[in-house]
Specification:
It is built from four helices and 24 strands. By secondary structure, it is mainly beta. The radius of gyration is 26 Å and the shape is globular. The N and C termini lie far apart (about 75 Å). Bound molecules: copper (II) ion (CU).
Length: about 500
């Protein structure tokens, strides 16, 4: 079934929003400024009006940021508000740039929409997708519209949405709108709220967003299988009127966990506890895209978790942030407290905000240390402290290329060059960083804050100003500060310990 526009006059589309992160681009929709569109909006205002919801200019939509795509030019300063919208009411379908600052989805995309008769119309297709979780690791997953996870559904408080869901899977499915206030029959629990969507069928969901904030969507039929294979996505609903300080950068990251045996081509939905691929927007580091921010910008990061079993304490380096919102709504300012780690439980969203006032490359990662490992890092015998002697040579007569690993931990940087990886698998840890090897993989990404940015394309590694980088101490430093590196450590009074 197709919802390609049947009413060429009335429909407006955001086809450009289809590509990665660029739905933003939705800021300039075809037809936005056509007299016809304005007339239509006026009509909508009258027919759909939201009580008390006059559009406040200079708020969320005040600084029209046309695009958040990598490479897109940054706005110089606050742009003038779209005057054409000055006489518009609030319940016409919300527009990027005018009504909201588009959300950025690292490694992800946003669901295109069109407006038909005042309703935002989306079309989701549940289907199998070959997805790359990190360079060198692909899996046959289930997702939506060719993406894993599904594209972010972005809308504005008060928007009425009609969402078609076509099932191109070999199994029945449904879609549940997690955290969204809606009529019971639209809630999407297979069997309880609706008939399941059988293969080949298209169902129609329709409701108005009575709220703003961060929600999620996911299959609610054979949940264990379908969510494990990737059938999840985020919902971002911007407020119709500004609430709280305006943000300059608004990111959405969905957390997930997978069991993909090395060499296997499908995630294993039967896994209950031993997940070996941990992802942000379905990418494991080094596959994760960095978050680019200009110094001084106010940043919002929306985190969601639709993994099977694990809650993730997501830790941000370099900043103190506030948790401003859950999937149950905005937290009143008096109820917010400062944090450096936010626990994102399964089936929840948490939104944090902070002002990026310290430049650098800052780690943003799950603090469960096994969640920043990739495949194969978890099932090895404990070899720490073991001296393999000539074991390797002996074993190599039986197993060419054998190498004992783990005697000093899991820093594999020395071995990567001559390690033979099984096909379709990724090293258990990290990637080369600017200064050395980064021994984290999985649920790890980087927040890149720069004094100046001409675009949101990745600016490369941070250049530390002189005197602000930890480095090898010189003998002169040690002498000056009266430190003998060969002496017992200060405070270590054990008589039997002799160093050097
Ligand atoms: Cu975690």
């Amino acid at each position: 079934m197709s919802i390609r526009q049947s009413d060429g006059e009335a429909a407006e589309t955001n086809e450009r929003g289809e590509s990665s992160s660029a739905a933003a681009a939705g800021a300039e929709q075809p037809g936005l400024d056509s007299p016809r569109a304005l007339t239509r909006r006026k009509m909508l205002v009258m027919s759909v009006g939201l009580a008390g919801g006059a559009l406040v200019l200079g708020g969320m939509g005040g600084e029209a940021q046309a695009a958040d795509a990598p490479g897109a030019k940054l706005p110089r300063a606050s742009a003038a508000t779209d005057d054409a919208s000055a006489d518009q009411g609030s319940a016409s379908p919300g527009r990027a740039g005018r009504d909201y600052q588009p959300v950025v989805v690292p490694n992800g995309s946003k669901l295109p929409w069109k407006i038909v008769g005042g309703v935002k119309v989306f079309h989701m297709v549940a289907e199998e997708v070959e997805h790359e979780l990190a360079p060198g690791l692909k899996a046959r997953c289930w997702g939506y519209n060719g993406k894993v996870h599904g594209p972010v559904l972005e809308a504005v408080e008060g928007d009425r949405v009609r969402i078609y869901v076509t099932n191109r899977l070999p199994a029945a499915t449904t879609v549940h709108w997690h955290g969204i206030l809606l009529p019971n029959g639209m809630d999407g629990v297979g069997g309880l709220n609706q008939k399941v969507i059988r293969p080949g069928e298209t169902f129609k969901y329709e409701f108005a967003f009575r709220q703003f904030g961060t929600g999620m969507y996911h299959s609610h039929h054979d949940e264990m299988t379908q969510m494990a294979l990737g059938m999840t996505g985020m919902i971002v609903i911007h407020p119709r009127r500004p609430r709280g300080p305006r943000v300059d950068r608004d990111f959405a990251i969905l957390l997930h966990e997978w069991r993909i045996n090395a060499g296997a081509s499908r995630p294993d939905p039967n896994e209950m506890s031993d997940f070996n691929v941990l992802t942000m927007n379905a990418k494991a580091f080094p596959g994760t895209e960095a978050l680019m921010v200009r110094k001084g910008q106010r940043v919002r990061i929306r985190l969601g978790n639709l993994g099977a079993m694990d809650h993730h304490p997501i830790h941000l380096h370099g900043y103190h942030f506030r948790i401003v919102e859950t999937d149950g709504g905005r937290i009143p300012e008096a109820g917010q407290w400062p944090e450096t780690t936010v626990l994102v439980p399964v089936g929840s969203t948490r939104t944090i905000e902070f002002v990026a006032d310290e430049p650098g490359d800052w780690a943003l990662h799950c603090h469960m240390t096994h969640h920043v490992m990739n495949q194969m890092g978890h099932e090895l015998p404990n070899m720490v402290g073991v001296n393999p002697g000539d074991l390797d040579e002996k074993v190599r007569t039986l197993l060419p290329g054998y190498m004992t690993m783990g005697q000093t931990g899991m820093d594999m940087s020395e071995h990567l060059g001559h390690m033979k990886m099984p096909p379709n698998s990724i090293p258990m840890v990290g990637a080369q960083g600017k200064h050395d090897y980064i021994t984290m993989g999985g649920m790890f990404t980087v927040l890149k804050v720069r004094d100046r940015l001409d675009s949101y394309a990745d600016p490369g590694w941070y250049r530390n100003p002189p005197g602000t980088l930890a480095e090898n101490a010189g003998a002169a430093d040690l002498r000056r500060d009266g430190i003998n590196p060969d002496a017992p450590p200060p405070g270590d009074s054990r008589p039997e310990v002799r160093h050097g």
